[in-house]
Design a protein that fits this description.
The protein is mostly helical and 90 residues long. The protein has one domain: Arc Repressor Mutant, subunit A. 43% of the residues lie in helices and 0% in strands. Helix 1 packs across helix 2. It is globular and about 40 Å long. The model has no long low-confidence stretch (mean pLDDT 92).
Length: 90
């Protein structure tokens, strides 16, 4: 998923940066799958090399293939949760 997708699902369509902050600060405590979240272009958002490489490795370990430009083909890998008849998503 993208940061923006998660923000929209949480009811804050302009809150992508808040999603970044929450994932950064709460992933370890709540075991959030932070490495599965990328920006709207399918790019890993980390500029710092060790974090970038860690996310890349986690994604590749799950079978995600990155392009030569180190991005993810969102048309192939992007997740869209299902919404039930009561508006709840899973």
């Amino acid at each position: 998923m993208t940061y923006g997708q998660i923000a929209r699902l949480a009811g804050s369509p302009r809150g992508a940066r808040q999603v970044v902050r929450i994932l950064h600060s709460m992933s370890a405590k709540y075991q959030l799958p932070w490495h599965r979240v990328v920006n709207a272009k399918g790019e890993i958002g980390f500029k710092e090399e060790s974090s970038f490489l860690l996310q890349k490795q986690f994604l590749e370990n799950e079978g995600i293939k990155l392009t030569e430009h180190h991005s993810i083909d969102l048309s192939q890998y992007q997740f869209y949760p299902r919404v039930d008849h009561e508006g709840e998503w899973s």
